[in-house]
Write a structure and sequence with these properties.
Number of strands: 2
Helix content: over 70%
Radius of gyration: 23 Å
Strand order of the largest sheet: 1-2
Number of helices: 17
Shape: globular
Amino acid sequence: MCLQKDGATYFILKIKRIRMLHKDNSLNILKKGVWLFFFLLIFEGALRKWFVPFLATPLLVVRDPIALWILFEVWRRKLLKFNPYIFAVFIVTAISFILTLIVGHGNLYVAIFGARIYFIYFPLIFAIGKIFDKEDVIKMGRTLLIISIPMLILIMLQFYSPQSAWVNRGVGGDMEGAGFGGAMGYFRPPGTFSFTAGNSMFWGLVAAFVIYFWVVPNQINKKLLITSSICLLMASMFSISRSVLFQIALSIVFALFFFMKKPENMKRIISILIPLLLIFAVVSLLPQFQLARDVMSARFENANEAEGGLAEGVIGNRFFGGFIREIQSSVNMPFWGFGLGMGTNAGSAMMVGERVFLISEGEWGRVFGEMGFLFGSIIIILRALLVVQLFIKSFKQWQKNPLPYMLLSFGALAIISGQWGMPTSLGFAVLTGGLIMASLNDKRYEKNNTFTPYRQPER
């Protein structure tokens, strides 16, 4: 009898082990899907500009099949269920889709392109949060820091090269160049992305990870961290982007607030600031950096005349002022909106033959214009509530696990006011939102409410 019981117990345990291994293998396949999404986000523009420019149009939605596959698999494996956010967004989008065809612009393909933002990409945030855990987020952060090194070299080449050069070719091999207005005859470089906005978001996410790794330095090779920090400082000038400077400043403010919560952390602040100041001092001596700094200064002066400096232009006009202004402009729009997809560049290309802003350049204006004031407000409120919930959850862990808190320094604005009508900006917002959720999945923290730092990686 004992032998029979032991044999049955062994058989049951073996079945459970096989199931666990199968589950782990399935999860690893899904993780590879997220990694593929990540690499396509970084290098999709390079494919469209340089390597297969004849496929520029279909490559615009190259991440859509990956996102669909991930969603199908997580639902099939019961890793993700409908939550109030997904349910509400699906209902609002479905109604808006029907209204688009009945009382809106009526173009089915444009409506599908607009609806995919909410039907595919919004739930993908939660899917990534279920597939990844904190270790995966750390690995992706290290990968970003590695990529930042050749990315800096690329944007420096784009900065110094004429727009007719191969590195500056636009989408589809456009010889007019992919650079955008800068200052002093220099253009804002797009890096591997189709447009300069992608480059700004890339460095914004890099900034969040760089500052995090300075906060928790035992999770990354110190040489890589210093090198990437230098790249970030140089990119802040060579990008000729006020948004990059704003994101770096915001990540630093988040880190300072984290340390100042406890007075005993002052020594830790000093130990971080000193190497960062030394790095900045060394980098500022480089003649290339000085030229880029002069161009950035000219960019600030030009922007001051047009819309204000960093605080007024980036924060005021693009965020708070833009919100108020676009709410006011929504009064003059149809109550049910013009229709999904009409506010995107791809949608305008399908409707009028060229990429123009048919509704609004700002994200909230696009949402109000496409979905109307009622449904547009619901979408914006849901995005804001999601960020609030992420803040609350990150604050519960932030002294033991500061990663989700630091990622919010970039992800909060990307989710609330990021230009989701642009595939690259949408991709960064969705990926970062998923990474924030995944970084809350810390098994060490959940086990005993304490956090054990990772061991120093092998050199």
